[in-house]
Amino acid sequence: METRFVRLVYYREQGSFSFANMHSVTHSVLLIILIFRGTNGDSVNQTEGPVTVSEGALMTLNCTYQTADFTPYLFWYVQHLNKAPQFLLKGLTADKKVEHEGFQATLIKRDSSFHLQKRAVQASDSAVYYCALSDTVMEGCRGS
What we know:
Layout lengths: L4 E5 L15 H12 L6 E4 L3 E5 L4 E3 L1 E4 L6 E7 L6 E6 L5 E4 L2 E4 L9 E3 L9 E7 L10
């Protein structure tokens, strides 16, 4: 039986996102403004570099944050090759699991974490994943 692997590129570049192969610079500028608006001194830390997982296996991408804000909002975005980043999940309520398209995450305030998981990762999940922090719920990210 052949084992297939899924490569999930997951990184952060010195406090800012890298939007390689974006269709529009306007989209990336708008997303950066929305993510970092009003987050003075706040930070998000993600696992650096590519993550390779066997197809069908559990995938976990770590995200921890630091903020002085009492009510942080955490978000996961996914960017497939040659596409703009797309909203995936948001964490608005502590200790409440959120799920979308097989992905799940729980905002755990005591650990300052919002780790992304998928139980049975597929080749179609190969992409760049971004964790983001905001002090407001961003317009367009209120669903799922």
